[in-house]
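Dear U.,

Please find below the material for section 3 of the report. The protein was modelled together with pyridoxal-5'-phosphate; I have listed the sequence and SMILES used, followed by the predicted complex structure.
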Amino acid sequence: MYSDRIKSLPPYPFAAIDRAKLAARKKGVDVIDLGVGDPDLPTPQIIIEALCNAAKDPQNHRYPSYEGKIEFRTAVSEWYKETFGVDLDPESEVLALIGSKEGIAHGPLAFLNPGNLALVPDPAYPVYKTAVEFAGGVPVILPLKRENGFLPDLDAITSDVARKARLIFLNYPNNPTGACADLGFFKKLVDFATDNNLIVLHDNPYSEVYFGDGRPPSILEVEGAREVAVEFHSLSKTCNMTGWRAGFVVGNEEIVQGIGNVKSNIDSGNFGAVQDAGIVALRRSREIAAGMRETYRERVELLYSGLKKIGLEVEKPEATFYLWAWTGGRSKEYTRKLIDKLGIVATPGVGFGDYGEGYVRFSVTQPTERIAEAVERMERMVAEERSL
Ligand SMILES: Cc1ncc(COP(=O)(O)O)c(C=O)c1O
């Protein structure tokens, strides 16, 4: 019944862990789920009220515009200017998306012909590789290794592959490793893309979830980036709005237009009321994100101490709400053990690609007291093992 495209999809990487989670719950275990990357914090009330008001506007009951309301796109361009100092033309360099995942998944259809190569990081958000394959492209894996700060080694890409590849996906601050890229790396990437005529699709939804002194940069801050790159962004993590599906892609006009062309043949834009509420979210994002960072910072500190105690090699993330821990063994076996022994769910690193093997991802998107409870369980286990 199914197409080769669907049949060739790898088995859902987290199915086994889902089954183990359900089984533990059935047995009455109080499971603490640190597996999902979905903020537990609620969307701020002011955004919800903006949605309720906008839902009453009959203009919003009709088909929205494909590219997004100009008011929404203008708010995005103002946000980029204020956040990163990047100037964008809201008419031609900003496109609304139904969550950034939608644009990421559709993007390659605009640029890849069957058999074209596309550079894809590993470990990574799985959609990059699937999107390339759905478009008939051939993913070329860029390993992200700890010794390189989880950045790809651009010098290791052969000139033949670099010249043949049409596009490159990257994501910093990075899911799942929590690593950041600086402007020096982005400059090198832009030069590499310019020399090889590559399209850069940079995914930046975690730019506001950072713990260091400065905000992680946008690739568009680099000179020349606008010639080769676009950046995906979203209100999902910035304003706790994953359910709202409010994202955008910005940057190079031709690339933005290409994605827009695909979209106008597939969807009819996102609900106007969500865009109106999105404008409020963008304008209030400073204070919303500042509060969110403080909450995650406390949780990261807490969980980090627990993970160290149970013997995992882990560093505090520079950004994102993930801790990426080295287990020294097989990631699926380790996550299985965590559920069985402690009732704690984490994501096996191998679910993000072969180079994630041996790692486990923990997400701090659970209430702080639940994370404290998880740490207590870890401490109890260590104390019991010592007393044996
Ligand atoms: C790296 C990365 N990109 C994109 C997304 C999708 O975000 P959105 O909710 O904007 O579709 C996620 C969500 O977890 C993510 O981790």
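For the text of the report, you could mention the following: The first strand starts at residue 32 and ends at 33.

Regards,
Y.
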